[in-house]
Amino acid sequence: MTAYFSLGILFLILGLVFLLVPFEKLKTVFRRMRSSITTKVGGAIFLAAGIVSILLGLGQ
To answer: What is the residue-wise DSSP string for 31-52?
Structure first.
């Protein structure tokens, strides 16, 4: 398993957590979160980074 693939799995899981867990639950854990919109955008960015990293890992 390459580093890209492992990092991609991590980003994919983190992105799914930020997208699927309700903002109120996330705010209890991460107290400094301010906006649900930026949290969901960040989750989408992590998800995209995870997919790209997995594809790079499979290409090697």
So the answer is: TT---HHHHHHHHHHHHHHHHH
Neighbours of 53 (CB within 10 A): 21
Domain range summary for the chain, segments of one domain joined by +: 3-59
pLDDT for 1 beyond 80: no
Q: Compute the C-alpha angle 27/33/42, nearest 5°.
A: 105
Distance CA 19, CA 30 (A): 14
More confident residue, 60 or 36: 36
pTM over 0.90: no
The secondary structure of residue 2, as a DSSP letter, is: -
Q: Which amino acid is at 28?
A: T
Contact 17, 43 (CB under 8 A): yes
